[in-house]
Amino acid sequence: MSKTFIPAAKPIIGEGERAAVDAVLASGRLAQGAEVAEFEKEFSDVLLDGRAAVAVNSGTSGLHLGLLAAGVGAGDEVIVPSFTFAATANSVALTGATPVFADIELDHYCMDVDHVQTLITERTKGIMPVHLYGHPANMEAFRNLANSRGINLFEDAAQAHGASIHGRNVGTFGDFGMFSLYPTKNMTSGEGGMVSTGDPAVERNLRLLRNQGMERQYENEIVGFNARMTDLHAAIGRVQLTKIKNWTKQRQANAAYLSANIEGVKTPEVASGAEHVYHQYTIRIPEDRDGFAAALKSEHEVGSGAYYPIPNHRLPSFQRPEDLPHTEQAAREVLSLPVHPSLSSADLERIVTAVNTLSEAGA
Ligand SMILES: *Cc1c(COP(=O)(O)O)cnc(C)c1O
């Protein structure tokens, strides 16, 4: 019997999500309404220590509106990592501001505080670290830097639902934090995003910007978007929220098993005091990463992904001349293995055998 393919990511949708969507359909009230309001409250309770949460139609909208709500616009610079999904820098560029690309550190693949410090100019409005792969960026250092330079701190927490530093959740350090609810993220609403903020003015701006600038119907106060989440999506998200803590424990247990048994390649490190939620479990393959990934699939039926093979500063959409050596190295070498909560122990054994067999053959 041939082995079944183990995919790199796998959204888990159960009967609860189906029933919740059906109930909204039966109610006939599909657009932003009571489900969205409940989802915001519950997300805040479960993942944000009670900090306010505003639901939007995607993570990218969340970053874009968060930046606008915090006053970012043309003439400003926002420092972001180059080693991330393009949505991070795109959202800055969409406000009219300029994304300035910083390098990462190679232990956790998050933005390098020392390098960020050298990039601050009189135009710098804020710093936006990404909690890449579910590992928190060094937010205590970034908060100190932002305070000492009088600039804003934002968080791209798209991949880091429930990650924390010394027990404090990501999404509660910045002026705002954004969580993506795209299907391959640690939890989903289909498409969607949640923006956390402790600043009532930013929260009010976010609510206005997502709904054409209206708090009361047809009394538009500012120019805004339609970035509303639907009640259908919120209903899915509410069910997923009841499972996120257990799914995170399962991801962490899967990661612990992989790290204890994989040999011959660099496995993920966790900073002291940090809780990693393993959106991705990322190893490094110094020679021929793409060949290694192809062999994982063709010889062992194990899926994997290179996130991200082209750094943002090298993309056709940005084309910047910067030299970011750690970013370039990571883009060449990283490979993420399946770590999602639906892996069986047989799947985990197969992943370990596949990686160890290939790394030994290459050594
Ligand atoms: C997924 C992701 C986003 C964008 O979220 P969407 O919900 O897909 O719009 C932004 N930043 C990072 C780091 C992401 O992984």
Automatic annotation (TrEMBL):
<feature type="active site" description="Proton acceptor">
    <location>
        <position position="185"/>
    </location>
</feature>
<keyword id="KW-0032">Aminotransferase</keyword>
<comment type="similarity">
    <text>Belongs to the DegT/DnrJ/EryC1 family.</text>
</comment>
<dbReference type="InterPro" id="IPR015421">
    <property type="entry name" value="PyrdxlP-dep_Trfase_major"/>
</dbReference>
<protein>
    <submittedName>
        <fullName>DegT/DnrJ/EryC1/StrS family aminotransferase</fullName>
    </submittedName>
</protein>
<dbReference type="GO" id="GO:0008483">
    <property type="term" value="F:transaminase activity"/>
</dbReference>
<feature type="modified residue" description="N6-(pyridoxal phosphate)lysine">
    <location>
        <position position="185"/>
    </location>
</feature>
<keyword id="KW-0663">Pyridoxal phosphate</keyword>
<dbReference type="InterPro" id="IPR015424">
    <property type="entry name" value="PyrdxlP-dep_Trfase"/>
</dbReference>
<dbReference type="GO" id="GO:0030170">
    <property type="term" value="F:pyridoxal phosphate binding"/>
</dbReference>
<keyword id="KW-0808">Transferase</keyword>
<dbReference type="GO" id="GO:0000271">
    <property type="term" value="P:polysaccharide biosynthetic process"/>
</dbReference>
<dbReference type="InterPro" id="IPR000653">
    <property type="entry name" value="DegT/StrS_aminotransferase"/>
</dbReference>
<dbReference type="Pfam" id="PF01041">
    <property type="entry name" value="DegT_DnrJ_EryC1"/>
</dbReference>
<dbReference type="InterPro" id="IPR015422">
    <property type="entry name" value="PyrdxlP-dep_Trfase_small"/>
</dbReference>
